[in-house]
Structure formats: C-alpha cells, structure tokens
UniProtKB/TrEMBL annotation:
Function according to Swiss-Prot or TrEMBL: Involved in the regulation of the intracellular balance of NAD and NADP, and is a key enzyme in the biosynthesis of NADP. Catalyzes specifically the phosphorylation on 2'-hydroxyl of the adenosine moiety of NAD to yield NADP.
Similarity field: Belongs to the NAD kinase family.
Protein name: NAD kinase
The UniProt record lists the keyword Cytoplasm: yes
Gene Ontology MF: a single term: ATP binding
Chief localization: cytoplasm
InterPro entries linked to this entry: ATP-NAD_kinase_N, ATP-NAD_kinase_PpnK-typ_C, NAD/diacylglycerol_kinase_sf, NADK
Transmembrane segments: none
Cofactor: a divalent metal cation
Catalytic-site annotation from UniProt: 72
Annotated Gene Ontology cellular component terms: cytoplasm
Subcellular location field: Cytoplasm
Protein source organism: Thermomonospora umbrina
C-alpha cells in the first residue's frame, strides 16, 4: 500500500450512486490507495478491502481526500466530516444543479485517474459560525458552508424580527425568514430568495429577507468581518434556525442568532480551473447566443475570439 487513503461518501439511497461508489472503490484499491467508507453506508456498498469508519469527523482524519458521490446535499453532509480535519472534498455530481461538485457522472473514470495521479488543486471556501443566545446566555453553536436561515415555524403566522449589523439595529421585518449566506451559498437558498450571485473568491456575507413586508427589504452584502444578528421579537411566533438545510435549532420568542465568519473554512478539490462565469452558464443553462468575445487587436471584425464560448446546457 502507498500510505494514501481516501474516504468515499455516497448517497446510498440512489442506485446510481452505489454503482459509482463501487467503481471508485475498485479503481482506487487497485491503485494501492486505502479506501475508507462510513459504517452506515458500508452494508449498501458491499465492498471488500475497505476500512469501515465511524460516521464522525474521525472518518476524515489524515485522509488525503473525501470523494463524494451525489448532489450538493451529500457534499454538505460530507463537509460535516471533513471541515475540522481540513481534508479536501471532491464532489462528483449525481444530482441536479450540483454547484459544489467538481465533476459530472460521465467524467467519473477520468476523475478517479486524476485522484490517483494527484492532479488536482485545493481551494478554501469561507464558512459562517452561528451562535444562538437566549437571555444573553449561549444556547447553541453551529456552522454553515452555504447559509444559516431564521425561518418561521408556523406556516400561518408571520415572523417578526429585527436585523442588526455590527451592533447597530438595521430594520424590523415582518417576514417568512432571513437568510445569512456565504458567497458559496449565494447560488443556493439565498438565490431562490432573490439574493445576488456572488463569485466564490469575493469575501463577504449576504443578508436576504424572505418575503418581507417592509419598504426596506433588499438583499445586503456586508463585510466578512461583520457580525450579523437576527433577533426574534418577544411577541412573535416561535422560529427555527436551519444551517445548510441539515442542522436545526428551535428559536423561542426573544432568541437572538449571531452570524460571523467561520474560524474553519471548507476545502474543495478542483480538477479544472473553470471560470465561475462558465459554471453559471452551464449549471443554469444561461443563453449566450450572440456573444462574440474580445477581438484580438488589429484583427478587425474578422478577428478570432480570445477563447471559445462556454458550453450551454
């Protein structure tokens, strides 16, 4: 064995993900790389010669990579395991949009070869740390890669909140909720709520009210060093905090949620240095018909473009 190890995480509820995981495990093992799988996925994967690990952060300790087969939800689940150890995630998209994934299902064989040959780069993505307080006392702490959302817990009643930026009150909103997102999360829930798309290399936090009944209820982009707070007013219905759609904390009236830049980023493995603009075009199927590109100096209208247009679809 080479001393190298890779943790494979799969959406085992999908047959395609199981088949893909079996292929990945077989090829990595034949390349002399030790493969780890989670104990709650081992039975579905039915693979020999793997290390079965507890479903905890310890599973990714000292691993070279966490290879994830599924959609963004599976990648967010794997991020729970890898963040504290600083192990990079490499996502293979078997879902729909898959903004966090680096490769598509049809590229699986080539992706495994890139892993075997260590031909990938690693980038860091900003996270947010979230603190819930009640009567000044810390009630819960958690984190998110995409977003932390304060939402109403009762469908028929509006949530009343006050937003605060850096210790100063900003606005009172009657709303369905408030999304506090990272640039990575700008294409997730925040996007659906009407927030801007933020390029991943921009360091900032987004604050996006959801269906707010207020004159001033526009999405906000604030400094990464800011502290954003959302206070649930005492006379409002109970609320709930969701982080990445996975971790939840109940918020009684009077609760305060504080969001700040996370102390630990999430690392993502990258196989291609694709421009984020091209990723947007591909994932959202944006129309780019008519784009001619920058013409090289002196070439006139018949000059060649500097590069090919992004692939649509």
């Amino acid at each position: 064995m080479s001393g190298r190890s890779v943790l494979v995480v799969a959406h085992t509820g999908r047959r395609e993900a199981v088949r893909s995981a079996e292929l990945v495990i077989d090829r990595l093992t034949k390349a002399g790389i030790t493969v780890r799988v989670l104990d709650d996925e081992a039975r579905d994967l039915r693979c020999a010669d793997v290390e079965v690990m507890p479903t905890s952060a310890a599973a990714a300790e000292d691993a070279e990579l966490v290879m994830v087969l599924g959609g963004d939800g599976t990648i967010l689940r794997a991020a729970d395991l890898s963040r504290m150890s600083g192990t990079p995630l490499l996502g293979v998209n078997l879902g729909h949009v898959g903004f966090l994934a680096e490769a598509e299902r049809e590229d699986l064989t080539a992706t495994v070869e890139r892993v075997v040959e260590r031909r990938y780069d690693v980038e860091e993505r900003m996270t947010i740390d979230v603190t819930v307080r009640r009567n000044g006392t810390v009630d819960a702490t958690t984190w998110a890669l995409n977003e932390a959302t304060v939402e109403k817990a009762e469908r028929e009643r509006m949530l009343e909140v006050v937003a605060e930026i850096d210790g100063r009150p900003l606005s009172h909103w009657g709303c369905d909720g408030v999304v506090c997102a990272t640039p990575t999360g700008s294409t997730a829930y925040a996007f659906s709520a009407g927030g801007p798309v933020v390029w991943p290399e921009v360091e900032a936090m987004l604050v996006v009210p959801i269906s707010a009944h207020a004159l001033f209820a526009r999405p906000l982009v604030v400094s990464p060093s800011s502290v954003v707070a959302v206070e649930v007013l005492p006379d409002t219905p109970r609320a709930v905090l969701w982080c990445d759609g996975r971790r939840t904390v109940g918020l009684p009236p009077g609760a305060r949620v504080e969001v700040r830049r996370g102390a630990s980023p999430v690392k993502l493995a990258r196989l291609h240095r694709t421009a984020f603009t091209d990723r947007l075009v591909t994932k959202f199927g944006l129309p780019v018909t008519g784009w001619r590109g920058r013409v090289r100096p002196g070439a006139g209208d018949a000059g060649r473009r500097d590069r090919d247009p992004p692939r649509e679809g």
